[in-house]
């Protein structure tokens, strides 16, 4: 039994979100940005004055997360927080709350609910390992840390040299390290996942590779 899911896991700023959303659109499937759920949980906790390390309290918030998704926008308690959840601070918060097993458990079914009849493309850290272990196609999408930092810098309109850039690079490396070393659903390439290194690929080329692999399945 295989689930109609393409699971794309990988480190931060690898471009997996962009690729996953494009693949979903090309195949007429739903798209799950699972990182957004952890980011929303971190923001929600911050707004409610709950410490990111308070496992029980954060898990309780995650279980009742007042979040809504529509296209590429995301709302929290009725407010559009699409840009707010992309900050590096909330990224660190997401990484912190994502290390707590009770928080991961609280978000598990919510992620699975994104799979409807049309099928799903899901991106995150544990899509293939935990959330959709029977996904028909599993991909580990990555790129050199420096290339990822350059992509993030471009998004933020920051030059790819200098102290601000080095800061982005070290933030990315710190978050990867935390995601890899944690006990709960650590970031890793599964034996049954295909490796897609996008260091030297454009978004179009990355999307094409995923679609080629998908077509090989049938
Ligand atoms: O992918 P994104 O950078 O938005 O994810 C933010 C953080 O959420 C990651 O650093 C990771 O710690 C966590 N995360 C996770 N499992 C997922 C998706 C994200 O632990 N499936």
From TrEMBL:
Source taxon at top rank: Bacteria
Cellular component terms (Gene Ontology): cytosol
PANTHER family: CYTIDYLATE KINASE (PTHR21299:SF2), CYTIDYLATE KINASE/PANTOATE-BETA-ALANINE LIGASE (PTHR21299)
Keywords noted in UniProt: ATP-binding, Cytoplasm, Kinase, Nucleotide-binding, Transferase
Provenance organism: Conchiformibius kuhniae
GO biological process: nucleobase-containing small molecule interconversion; pyrimidine nucleotide metabolic process
A Pfam match: Cytidylate_kin
Catalytic activity: CMP + ATP = CDP + ADP; dCMP + ATP = dCDP + ADP
Compartment(s): Cytoplasm
Domain Cytidylate kinase: 6-214
Stated family: Belongs to the cytidylate kinase family. Type 1 subfamily.
NCBIfam families found in the cross-reference section: cmk (TIGR00017)
Name of the molecule in the record: Cytidylate kinase
Molecular function in Gene Ontology: ATP binding; dCMP kinase activity
EC class: transferase
InterPro entries assigned to the protein according to its UniProt record, in alphabetical order: Cytidylate_kin, Cytidylate_kinase_dom, P-loop_NTPase
Residues holding ATP: 10-18
Keyword Transit peptide: no
């Amino acid at each position: 039994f295989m689930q109609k899911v393409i699971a794309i896991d990988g480190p931060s700023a690898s471009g997996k979100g962009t690729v996953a959303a494009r693949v979903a659109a090309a195949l007429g499937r739903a798209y799950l940005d699972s990182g957004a759920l952890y980011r929303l949980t971190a923001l929600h906790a911050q707004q409610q004055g709950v410490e990111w390390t308070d496992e029980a309290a954060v898990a309780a918030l995650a279980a009742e997360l007042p979040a809504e998704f529509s296209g590429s926008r995301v709302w929290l308690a009725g407010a559009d927080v699409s840009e707010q959840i992309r900050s590096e601070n909330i990224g660190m918060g997401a990484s912190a709350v994502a290390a707590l097993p009770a928080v991961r458990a609280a978000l598990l079914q919510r992620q699975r609910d994104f799979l409807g009849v049309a099928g799903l493309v899901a991106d995150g850290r544990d899509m293939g390992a935990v959330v959709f272990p029977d996904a028909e196609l599993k991909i580990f999408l990555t790129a050199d840390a420096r290339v990822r930092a350059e992509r993030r810098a471009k998004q933020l309109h920051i030059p790819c040299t200098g102290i601000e850039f080095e800061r982005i690079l070290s933030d990315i490396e710190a978050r990867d390290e935390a995601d890899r070393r944690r006990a709960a659903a650590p970031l890793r390439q599964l034996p049954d996942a295909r490796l897609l290194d996008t260091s030297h690929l454009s978004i179009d080329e990355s999307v094409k590779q995923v679609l080629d692999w998908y077509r090989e399945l049938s």
